[in-house]
Amino acid sequence: MATLRGVGIQPDAIVLRSAKPVPEEVRKKVALFTNVRPGHVFSSPNVEHLYEVPLLLEEQGLGRVVERALGLEPVFPNLAFWQEAVRILKNPERTVRIAIAGKYVKMPDAYLSLLEALKHAGIKNRARVEVKWVDAESLEAADLDEAFADVAGILVPGGFGVRGIEGKVRAAQYARERKIPYLGICLGLQIAVIEFARNVAGLKGANSTEFDPYTPHPVIDLMPEQLEVEGLGGTMRLGDWPMRIRPGTLLHRLYGREEVLERHRHRYEVNPLYVDGLERAGLVISAITPGMKGRGAGLVEAIELKDHPFFLALQSHPEFKSRPMRPSPPFAGFVEAAIRFAEGA
Questions:
Q1: Rounded to an integer, what distance in angstroms lies between the CA atom of residue 27 and that of residue 57?
Q2: Which of 186, 195, 217, 262 is catalytic?
């Protein structure tokens, strides 16, 4: 039960959480025993989709009660988008299946922001996004044709630690070679760079120093200014950082701008010493960090491939800024590409 404390002589409002809608007689009884007006007790039952809740509470008049209690000017919200979003979620025009290859797949809440961003992208594309959880560790020895037979896109999310890394590398390679839409987030970018370095650029044994400190080709590494910082938190690139997007790239088409801010949470970067060689081998660096107060200028923010229907990876976490009415452009483009792949377009 949640309450809204009234202002002045205004009474409280009460919102009751329940499995089913609370009957009118029960709401009246709650009002009687809590000294609240009967019309100020609201029911918030379980719903199929979270985005139904604002519609349900607005229908019962909670917004009007809040306005009166706080002395606000009346506002009559246009909920057409929410109504349409719920309609699409309940009756999508199509369904598309995406594989998330991670190591926390037994704890899906670890990827909650990703799931919501995919849902937002699904709403924009009038589709239901089904997720197939794929344990990255199992991919190290799995038949990838079997593992990804029923999906139209592969997403490699962020993470830390060496467990499952080689399985993620194989997933990125499979997506690249089979022309399956691929989206890499944070570690997913580093995985894509490692895979490309090994199998396209010919850098045998390429890796991140996070996973192999003695790799002959540290294509992913800590930056020199980070090495003297004590404590893991001090070496992380956190919060909003700008990325300058290269015109004519897939990323530029998705965002429609040449500079955007996205949130970051990572320690390791694409090693600048290898960027020229990777570009000569065909890797497209579609965004870099322009630098903030002299720090980080030129760091790789996003990569993509030219001869691929959709192969994109970002060092940032664009899912953190995704909203139902403003889906993350990389996620919206990824789901759109997965739909085209599923439909053979």
A1: 14
A2: 186
